[in-house]
Write a structure and sequence with these properties.
The complex is a heterodimer.
Chain A: E1 6-12, H1 19-28, E2 41-50, E3 53-62, H2 72-76, E4 81-87, H3 91-95, H4 97-108, E5 118-123, H5 136-145, E6 151-153, H6 162-179, H7 193-196
Parallel strand pairs in A: 1-3, 1-4, 4-5, 5-6
Antiparallel strand pairs in A: 2-3
Chain B: E1 5-18, E2 24-35, E3 38-45, H1 51-62, E4 75-78, H2 81-85, E5 87-91, E6 95-100, E7 107-114, E8 123-126, H3 133-146, E9 149-155, E10 161-167, E11 177-179, H4 189-204, H5 210-221, H6 234-240, H7 243-261, H8 264-274, H9 285-293, H10 298-318, H11 324-329, H12 348-353, H13 365-375, H14 379-389, H15 399-426, H16 454-469, H17 508-523, H18 533-544, H19 547-561, H20 570-586, H21 588-596, H22 606-610, H23 619-631, H24 638-649, H25 651-655, H26 660-669, H27 676-714, E12 723-725, E13 731-733, H28 737-749, H29 755-760
Antiparallel strand pairs in B: 1-2, 1-4, 1-8, 2-3, 3-5, 6-7, 6-10, 7-8, 9-10, 9-11, 12-13
Helix pairs in contact in B: 10-27, 13-23, 15-16, 15-17, 15-19, 16-17, 17-18, 17-19, 18-19, 20-21, 20-24, 24-27, 27-28
Classes of the chains: A alpha/beta, B alpha+beta.
């Protein structure tokens, strides 16, 4: 098993789909419908057990408006996994998932884009069924077409599936890491597993 | 000259010179008598010195008996052509000044400047066990002193302090200060006695007997010999002077030592550039190569220049000299960096006194701007004063005129709002949507699509706006769930709102926010609604409570900052890069810290600049920040001075953070915990400091450039720019130095990417000539 114990996860999706709420529900077990719109970026960290291994997951929450994504480069660097979020009651937020995924792959430029761990969350399932615009079936079909991305329907407000979704992405990221021993650094540089987690901060 | 011998006076082994980052040559630094009374200061490459001679060098170095120049005895070493080729030497009389680089744990660098203004390469002297930096320097001073030189502290034309080496009878200019000897040499017998004793003490201290110690204590206690004390071994001095006395004397000396640091790297770099031009250089091909490759890179000078400006400033501010003579050479006038904030916002009672009977302001625009800039406004007069600051009311308008303006604005707003409402009521105009007709902006669409259909466009914007309005300042009662309270009393901010899980309530103030924003995007069609706009609007509605006033004031506010929200984000990038330049000029340590953390992009300041500190200060403090920014006309980028003020305020904590992530987290968490008055005060001080440092940087940079071009010229490198093309096509070379300085100045001042010109944007008071 690899020694990596810090996972960097990026949450992406249109503004107002619930990125900040999902992060806060997962980390702080709290919900508020009054989180301010995220400007720039922020992150929270949480220590979790994944398959008997203690890891720290660092979750990055970014602004949802497209024009701010040019900042992404600084925040996406060294990402281990990416969560794409849309609002099941808003068609547009689902239609833009493609853009978010492509943009992420361009900016983060992971070594193995085809196998990079993504996860899709359809959020706000707590609202009444009549408001729903995207069926589970349609969402799953999209996920399948993108290389079997795992799909979860969540409610940040009611804490439905939030824990499970994060657990899943953490597990997938760790598996990915085991498959691809090095992500960002040429293998000759980083021999010490302890150093690897600092790669984002490296200033050499 | 094949086998000549010279008398060796001093020697120091393990002295290195550096060609580039990785090649260091060991050698010997020495002084010898070339011919009668002609002394030469020299570094010789170790591998050219015979084993026999090496032993002599070591012997002289370690000998407690120092050879006096006048004496006949001494050690002789070979000084042949081969050695000359592999040495860097200068006649002692050619040495004009010296200084040291910032010492490391193992080395002290010595830089010497010659009378022809060239520099010898830096000599890196390896420290011996328990040896202090100061010992190395004082050794050098004593060499000069023994050979009949005086050492003066002075300032060169770029502002750095240099230790001048002069002949004892040489006239020096008034701006220099003699150090290392008594300030006013006395020609009394005692003075003479001390002069003689100095040699004995310096050179033969190891032989001081108990009897001698008493005499020495007497001499060392005399004020004229104080400067000598630090030159002597500590053990010796301690044995004859009380600790307190020694400490006092040494402290004085330590102060002098500070000046040496000024020479630092700046000189090292110069030295490497000029290395090819030194006397007796021989055939160092490396040097020639190095010199040819060295081109003018402004960047390599900036940091060092700024450091030296910072250092000079600190010295003058924190170590103000009480000595008149010192003040004379320190003839840099330090401007007043203090801020002028009053700490007492203008009250309604004060504000009404500014009006005359006609309802016209009796003070001029400049006066009022200055008052508002320094004091700020109490909340209840903002609804009037802000309209002047935001160009709604002319400063000299009468009450009648203002009523008229208000009415017109109300009508225009109502009409705008009416228009988009009507479009929405009419519904979509083109029900059939043709995908291929999508506007080109859609090519890279993420979540913001530019709908070609106006109905859809407004609907889309309204949807986004409502999403954000619902989460804008909901802790402020006028925007909170339960309140329709429109009183202008300062509202209470609810704590722990996060626990509230009820449905987001809609209230009439949120509706006003939404309508104003939709109307704004209807007027400013290109940008559309961008996140952050609702943040800027909320405090303005908080002040005016009236829809049309709020709209027009917001519109004026956005005129100043709408580029922040532009799709290409160029203005944000521009501001972040200007902020970086400013941090560099105002706090080089902070700059180097961010450099070390690999975050010179300063993304952690993005939110500050995008919404002009709306999220960083408390709702009402933010208004104070804004009105201060609007009132001043010093800078179109005053927010950057506020940003540096916040960073400096948190410098100690930031220095403790080791990554971009931690820095971002720390800065995000400052939100609403920043105290407004100290920050605005500091921003004003920083602005003043900026003006001062900018001038310094400009002058010193131009000086560097002049020196660089002069050296190039001496070295036969011809700058294309030095040619003036005549009408008949002939080229004529101008060699005189005034042309060079003009050229250098032009090159720096006309280069748009020069830091000087980038920084010039930060002040409306700076005129580029």
């Amino acid at each position: 098993m690899s020694g990596k114990n810090l996972l960097k996860a990026i949450i992406l999706g249109d503004s107002g789909v619930g990125k900040t709420s999902l992060m806060n529900q997962y980390v702080n077990k709290k919900f508020s419908n009054q989180y301010k719109a995220t400007i720039g970026a922020d992150f929270l960290t949480k220590e979790v057990m994944v398959d008997d291994k203690l890891i720290t997951i660092q979750i990055w929450d970014t602004a949802g408006q497209e024009r701010f994504q040019s900042l992404g480069v600084a925040f996406y660097r060294g990402a281990d996994c990416c969560m794409l979020v849309y609002d099941v009651n808003n068609m547009k937020s689902f239609e833009t998932l493609d853009n978010w995924r492509d943009e992420f792959l361009v900016q983060a430029s992971p070594k193995h884009p085809e196998s990079f761990p993504f996860i899709v969350l359809g959020n706000k399932i707590d609202l009444e069924e009549s408001k729903r615009q995207i069926s589970q079936k349609r969402a799953m079909a999209w996920c399948q077409s993108k290389g079997n991305i795992p799909y979860f329907e969540t409610s940040a407000k009611e804490a439905i599936n939030v824990e499970q979704a994060f657990q899943q992405i953490a597990r997938n990221a760790l598996m990915q890491e085991a498959d691809v021993p090095e992500f960002n650094f040429p293998p000759s540089v980083s021999l010490d597993a302890e150093q690897k987690q600092d790669q984002g901060d490296c200033n050499c | 000259m094949s086998e000549s011998k010279v008398r060796l006076l001093y020697s120091r082994t393990n002295v290195f010179i550096q060609f580039n980052d990785d090649v260091c040559l060991p050698g010997v630094l020495c002084t010898f008598e070339e011919s009668q009374k002609q002394y030469v200061f020299s570094w010789m490459s170790e591998d050219k010195i015979s084993e026999k001679d090496m032993n002599i060098y070591r012997e002289v170095e370690n000998s407690k008996e120092v050879i006096l120049p006048d004496s006949e005895n001494g050690y002789f070493v070979t000084y042949d052509e081969e050695l000359i080729k592999n040495s860097i030497s200068a006649p002692l009389n050619e040495i004009a000044s010296f200084g040291t680089t910032v010492p490391t744990e193992w080395y002290v660098g010595i830089v010497l400047q010659l009378k022809n203004e060239l520099y010898l390469p830096t000599f890196f002297i390896q420290k011996k066990q328990f040896e202090e930096d100061i010992d190395v320097y004082t050794q050098l001073a004593s060499w000069f002193s023994i050979l009949g030189k005086n050492v003066y502290r002075t300032i060169n034309d770029t502002g750095s302090k240099i230790y001048k080496v002069c002949d004892e009878n040489e006239e020096i200019d008034e701006s220099s200060t003699l150090i290392g000897k008594n300030q006013e040499p006395e020609s009394t017998d005692l003075g003479k006695f001390i002069e003689d004793a100095k040699f004995n003490l310096l050179l033969k201290f190891s032989k001081v007997t108990q009897k001698g110690k008493e005499a020495a204590a007497h001499i060392l206690g005399a004020p004229v010999s104080k400067p000598l004390v630090p030159l002597l071994p500590k053990s010796f001095v301690n044995s004859i002077l009380s600790k307190e006395e020694v400490k006092n004397i040494c402290d004085e000396y330590d102060a002098a030592r500070q000046y040496l640091r000024l020479m630092s790297k700046e000189m090292q770099e110069k030295a490497l550039n000029a290395i090819n031009q030194t006397i007796n250089l021989g055939n160092y091909n490396h040097y020639q190569k190095l010199n040819q490759e060295t081109e003018w890179h402004e960047e390599q000078y900036i940091t060092e220049i700024i450091k030296s400006i910072e250092h000079d400033e600190q010295e003058i501010l924190f170590n103000p000299s009480t000595n008149e003579e010192d003040n004379e050479w320190q003839n840099i006038e330090m401007p007043d960096f203090n801020n002028t904030r009053t700490g007492n916002p203008i009250t309604a009672e004060q504000w009404v006194t500014f009006y005359d009977n006609e309802g016209k302001l009796t003070k001029t625009e400049e006066e009022l701007r200055d008052i508002i800039y320094r004091s700020g406004l109490e909340n209840d007069i903002r609804m009037d004063a802000w309209k002047y600051l935001l160009n709604i009311f002319p400063w000299d308008s009468t009450e009648e005129k203002r009523k008229e303006i208000n009415l017109t604005l109300k009508q225009s707003y109502d009409s705008l709002k009416e228009q988009w409402k009507k479009i929405l009521e009419n519904g979509p105009s083109s029900p059939v949507e043709n995908e291929s007709e999508e506007s080109p902006q859609n090519a890279n669409a993420g979540d913001e699509r530019f709908e070609s259909d106006i109905y859809k466009r407004i609907m889309d914007r309204k949807y986004r706006i409502e999403k954000d309005v619902l989460r804008t300042d909901r802790t402020i009662p006028m925007y909170s769930n339960s309140s329709d309270n429109l009183s202008s009393d300062k509202p209470v901010i609810y704590e722990n709102i996060e626990t509230d899980t009820s449905e987001a309530g809609w209230n009439s103030n949120l509706e006003l926010l939404r309508d104003i924003l939709v109307t704004y995007t209807f007027l400013e069609n290109d940008n559309g609604y961008v996140q952050g706009m609702s943040d800027l609007l909320a405090p303005i509605l908080g002040v005016f409570r009236s829809e049309s006033d709020t709209f027009w004031c917001f519109n004026e506010f956005m005129e100043k900052y709408k580029n922040n929200f532009h799709r290409n984000q160029e203005e944000m990038k521009n501001q972040l890069s200007l902020l970086l330049d400013l941090i560099r000029l105002l706090d080089i340590e902070l700059y180097e810290h961010f450099e070390k953390l690999n975050c010179l992009h300063l993304f952690f300041c993005f939110r500050w600049l995008l919404v002009i500190f709306k999220r960083e200060f408390d709702f009402y403090d933010c208004m104070r920040v804004w009105e201060t920014m609007w009132a001043q006309k010093k800078s179109d980028y005053y927010q950057l001075f506020i940003a540096v003020a916040i960073l400096k305020e948190n410098k100690a904590q930031l220095f403790g953070l080791e990554s971009f992530d931690d820095t971002l987290k720390y800065i995000n968490n400052l939100s609403t915990h920043i105290k407004v008055e100290p920050i605005l005060g500091e921003a004003e001080s920083l602005y003043k400091k900026f003006i001062y440092r900018y001038q310094e940087l400009k002058d010193r940079l131009i000086n560097e450039k002049i020196n660089y071009m002069k050296k190039d010229q001496e070295n036969g490198v011809v700058h294309m720019e030095v040619f003036n093309e005549n009408d008949n096509g002939e080229q004529q070379q101008n060699n005189n130095s005034s042309d060079i300085s003009e050229l250098a100045q032009n090159e720096i001042l006309k280069d748009p990417i020069s830091i000087i010109n980038r920084l010039a944007k930060l002040s409306n008071e700076i005129k580029i000539n």
